[in-house]
Amino acid sequence: MMMMLMRTDPFRDLDRLAQQVFGADGTQARPSAMPMDAWREGDTFLVEFDLPGVDVDSIDLDVERNVITVRAERPNRASDAELLAAERPRGVFSRQLVLGDNLDTQRIGANYRSGVLTLRIPVAEKAKPRKISITREHDDQQAINA
Asked: Where in this chain does the entry annotate a coiled-coil region (predicted)?
């Protein structure tokens, strides 16, 4: 089975984790999670991102070559609000997926419903298995009588 989804650069992931744990300004921060599932159904590769409470207009989806970048924002509460619990990450989150060359990034479909962003990425025609017909060569020579 050919790999459809490749992990991003581990050093970038480490930097992102450090920023999430320590915050961009060195203060303590909570991770900004964008959990995802990815699987293949027939000739389509599907990816779902959990983005509850995110307005569809704040979601930005870009494709450059074989890299998909998903950015979303869950706005911060009013500064004068008294927080009693703050377990849901807020602010801007971003996630990148590096796709294999066997996916058709020109025909990606995206749908947002009930807090879940679903991407449908078709397998490229050139990557689909296909049958090769074999022609039978006919013997055009006639037996030579001696």
From this structure: none
pLDDT digits (tens, 9 = 90+) for 10-29: 555 666 556 555 555 444 44
Domain residue ranges of the chain, discontinuous segments joined by +: 5-16+33-79+87-126
Which three-class secondary structure string do you get for the chain? CCCCEECCCHHHHHHHHHHHHHCCCCCCCCCCCCCEEEEEECCEEEEEEECCCCCHHHCEEEEECCEEEEEEEECCCCCCCCCCCCCCCCEEEEEEEEECCCECHHHCEEEEECCEEEEEEEECHHHCCCCCCCCCCCCCCCCCCC
**In CATH, 5-16+33-79+87-126 is 2.60.40.790:** yes
